[in-house]
Amino acid sequence: MCADVSVVQRHKKHSAQLSCVQSCCASNILPVVHDQTLDLDNQFCFSLYRASRAVTRAYRPLLEGIGLTYPQYLAMLVLWHAEGPVGVNDIGTRLHLDSGTLTPLLRRLEDAGFITRAWSNDDERRRIISLTDGGRSLRHQAAGLPERMLALYP
């Protein structure tokens, strides 16, 4: 019988402690307030992201006609503007792309016959990108794209 009383007393003691902890915690819990400054639609960065995605989507059908994706088009713009061969790092710097993103993009452009990739004669660690005849002629096909894009947004 003494063992039963001891168990009951311990249970009451633990219950009292638990009750005390619960009431202390409950009094210190702050009410949840909805902070509208953290709503996704109130984020400036999200507005820019949505606008960028919309522009990329608008370019897609125009670029499909000349066989390029939007990132490939940007790389080709850098190459068309250059006076000659361009280093991979220079393209990456201009487009704010790392080599992990840029290398497969350039490989696909090479596979399509628009560019060549070669090692630099001056620095064996450096890759040089040059336009092929196909890449240069693609410039003429792309020449009207900026005007066509502007026409979409009168």
From TrEMBL:
Protein location: Cytoplasm
UniProt xrefs under InterPro entries: HTH_MarR-typ, MarR/SlyA-like, Transc_reg_Sar_Rot_HTH, WH-like_DNA-bd_sf, WH_DNA-bd_sf
Q: Name one GO biological process term.
A: response to stress
Give the primary localization class.
cytoplasm
Give this protein's Gene Ontology molecular function annotations. DNA binding; DNA-binding transcription factor activity
Gene3D superfamilies recorded? Winged helix-like DNA-binding domain superfamily/Winged helix DNA-binding domain (1.10.10.10)
Residues in HTH marR-type domain copies: 41-154
Example of a GO cellular component annotation carried by this entry: cytoplasm
Q: Which SMART domains match?
A: HTH_MARR
Q: Keywords of this protein's UniProt record, alphabetized? A: Cytoplasm, DNA-binding, Transcription, Transcription regulation
Official protein name in the record: MarR family transcriptional regulator
Q: Which organism is it from?
A: Fusobacterium animalis ATCC 51191
